Amino acid sequence: MKRFLNLLKKEIKELVTIQLVVSLAFTIILFNFIGQVSRKEVQKAIGVQTISALDLDGSTSSQAILTGLESARFKIERIEGKSKEQAIDIARGGESKLLLVIPSGFGDSLKDLKPSQIETYSYMRSFSLIGARGQVVVRGVISALNNVLSDNFLREKLPGLDPASLKNPIKSKDFVIVQKRMAEASASDVAGMVSSQSLLIPVVLMMIIIYSSQMVISAVAMEKQNKTLETLLTVPIRRTSIITAKMFAAGLVGLISAGIYMFGFKSFMGGIGGDDLRAASSQAGAVMRQLGLYFDTTGYIVLGAALFLAILVALAMAMILGVLAEDFRSAQNMIMPLMFMVMIPYFISLFADINTVSLPVKIFILAIPFSHPFLVSQNLYLGNYGLIFGGLAYMLVVFTVLVVFAARVFSTDRILTMKLRFGKKKTAVA
Amino acid sequence: MDNVLTVRGLKKSYGKQMALAGIDFEVRPGEVFALIGPNGAGKTTTLRIIATLLTPTDGTISFLNHDLHKEPDFVREKISYLPEEAGAYKNMKGLDYLHFMANFYARTPEEEKAFVDRAVEITELGDRLKTKVGTYSKGMTRKILLARALMTKPVLAILDEPTSGLDVLNALEVREIVRRYVKEGTSVLLSSHNMLEIEFLSDRVALIDKGRILDSGTPDELKEKHQAKNMEEVFRSSLR
Questions:
Q1: Closest residue by Cα to residue B161 from B237, B54, B84
Q2: A55-90 pLDDT, tens per residue?
Q3: Is A238 an 8 Å CB contact of chain B?
Q4: Which domain CATH number covers B61?
Q5: Cα–Cα distance for residue pair A159/A157, rounded to 1 Å
Q6: What is the CATH number of domain A49-171?
Q7: Residue numbers of B between 41 and 60 with CB closer than 8 Å to A
Q8: B217: left (phi over 0), alpha (psi -120 to 50) or beta
Q9: Residues of chain B contacting A234 with CB distance shorter than 8 Å
Q10: Could you identify which of A125, A134, A236, A337 might form a hypothetical disulfide with A98, taking C-beta atoms 3.0 to 4.6 angstroms apart as the criterion?
Q11: What is the tens place of the pLDDT at every residue in B158-191?
């Protein structure tokens, strides 16, 4: 144990370099900074925005539109006594992103029940989605006014009838059923919420696997490149302890690094989402809870176990790939097969449903050990416990086979003679 | 007194390529035994097998009357191996590297300190041991690696080309260190293609070529047998 701890301490020290600490600190600062900037922009967009308005009509109806906009937290800069062309130039010089032109005769057309037209001129001062929000709100206000006007007309012409029922005689009430639970929501909304809930799983998995695997592959390759491996293999420590120490150190540092990255990522996303997103999340959360589409303690334990096993499999694979790497440079290429093995299930889970793909594709996906953590959340929601525990058992078997193989490689000549040069055959070197 | 190491019929092949075609030799307590021969003769393969890094294809190796193949953990406790192109962890300070290595062998903190103190004495690097190994010259790195190999007073030190790539003065220092520590009881198995070095260091020598031992004995015995003035002439003569 003393020897194992001695080696583990050395492995962790080798991995936790100043460069890594600086890079992690920089990432947190950067994510936080971007999150804060985005938050300010969102607040600016949600907050009071200026709209220029040229009211050439001056009727009660045109006034109602402008008042409606003011009540939707817009600041209206009224341009008085100018032509349309002059108003376009004036607004261009100002800060407003939208010019609203209400033509003369607008109110009269409405009274005569003729279609009336409002012109909007958007000044694209940036191409961010948040910047284009002004026009969306104007459309919302006009749509609301259309409703009010048409409701008034219907009440006048057909007294005693509900205008809303007349305009939409067929109404739909959407329900979603998941197993035995039911809630009032649309299927597309629920699918969207489930996908956003499990959005972090593949990101976390990708990050940890990339970090930890890279570290293990590099740790073995660096021992080879720096000519320290031969000495290490002749000191009195078991070969399995060497493997375990390297895997444990890389897994630990990888987990901490990924955790720090996720913390930064969360503060970035929190910055963008702001209070509105949190409010929406609480409403969506109620629907999800009603449908049982959330993780309880058991769910988190199962998900954690799947992530942990996936990391172990990745580390064991990385250990074997590290043995094949000749030096640090070739170790960089060795990570590619692992990356593909993580990316394939990730992209398939984005675009396809594992339950509906053809059998050969399904077998292919399930054969990749990293597919199972992606499928755990969906299977937990749908109660497919057979698939979940089958997946966990499969990952455990793959991990055991890989570790036994890695231990064999480390216990035999192969640790020194196995090499993979790209474009060349495996060679044995004396 | 029993031999420290007894090698009989040692063979090693990499696929179809035969690296060792059956060699026999032994290392006695407190002696320096040298394998000399050209590049590719099988010296490094022999040392790597004895250092428990490679598995022999055939033959037996007895270390302190223990089967090396069956009890590699016992062997690793008692030997130290200095590969030809060995390196140390570049991000570690010299002193930390010595502590790290000593920790594998020491049973108590006092023993670890004694190992490191001995290594510090061997290296004669003083305060430079407080700086990172990555900043050391080739000579300094070789000295710290040699100190690492000798600090535990192993029963058998296996040194592969111990002065490889060193200048004259550094090579001389390394040879003197080896000689000094042999007097303290460590047996040494070394390899070299530097015949003059072998003559200076070794008690007994085996001439090896193409995986076979051509001849063995003390340098004086071999010179007399081959009517040669030095080991280079012995080697040329034994090749004929």
A1: B84
A2: 998 888 888 778 877 776 778 888 888 888 899 988
A3: yes
A4: 3.40.50.300
A5: 6
A6: 3.40.1710.10
A7: 44-45, 48, 51-55
A8: left
A9: 51-53, 76, 79-81
A10: A134
A11: 998 888 777 888 888 888 888 887 877 889 999 9
